[in-house]
């Protein structure tokens, strides 16, 4: 027996790659090149959805959205009770401050709409193994955005609180019911922006794995959401208290002079 001959074992036998694995590897390598050479020519006007620029903007916009949903309930504190004259008054200084801050935040929403119009997307027909070829045609990008999320983003970007609280009938109306009904429209946009915050949070989590890069920032983010919920509840409670005060004055007025509270 030749003891010098190498011994073969099943661990030393080189297995040729199966055609199935070879095809998967080829597909995976081709999908890593999701950006064609044409993308370099339009890299100023079309944004890469997985690029650092878009990721950073999503985080900045998330901060602006959180500020927005914290500002909107403060409009509920505009009506106030004037006990000396026994009437409903309005905090003009607070309204000016809220209008300025809300207008600045609305600029982020307007620019976010522009970014969405210029952000490429993966073609569904080529989306294999989680990635696909990017669609870089501005017309197709705009058409897709108009059919999907444009309406919600546009409604969220409208300056509804600023416009409605500065309308002449809101300032001149002596009926508390008229002023309160105007404020009810704000809560509709508030819940719309809150929905977009959760949607954006889910998108950032899918792209990067986490919303915040550190554990401390993630804990602060979750606590902030809890505080926002308490903030909204307090603003609604204050508004309901103002409504109750107005209803009491109407009842007293009707007792002394029927029809005066209408």
Keywords for this entry:
single chain; 262 residues; mainly alpha; two-stranded antiparallel sheet; two-stranded antiparallel ribbon; 64% helix; elongated
Number of DSSP helical runs: 10
* Shape, per Cα inertia axes: elongated
Order of helices and strands: HHHEEHEEHHHHHH
Q: Average pLDDT across residues?
A: 76
What spatial order of strands do you see in the largest sheet?
1-2
Terminal-residue CA separation: 116 Å
Q: Which ranges are low-confidence, i.e. pLDDT below 50, for 5 or more consecutive residues? A: 5-17, 19-37
Give helix % range.
55-70%
- The count of strands amounts to 4
The major pleated sheet works out as: 2 strands, antiparallel
Overall description:
The structure is a single chain. The chain has 262 residues and is mainly alpha-helical. The chain contains 10 helices and 4 strands. It has a two-stranded antiparallel sheet with strand order 1-2. The chain has a two-stranded antiparallel ribbon with strand order 3-4.
Produce the secondary structure layout.
Elements: H1 19-31, H2 38-41, H3 52-71, E1 79-82, E2 87-90, H4 92-117, E3 121-122, E4 134-135, H5 138-148, H6 150-157, H7 160-165, H8 168-172, H9 176-208, H10 215-256
Antiparallel strand pairs: 1-2, 3-4
Helix pairs in contact: 3-4, 3-9, 4-6, 6-9
Can I get a quick summary?
By secondary structure, the protein is mainly alpha-helical. The protein has helices at residues 19-31, 38-41, 52-71, 92-117, 138-148, 150-157, 160-165, 168-172, 176-208, 215-256, and strands at 79-82, 87-90, 121-122, 134-135.
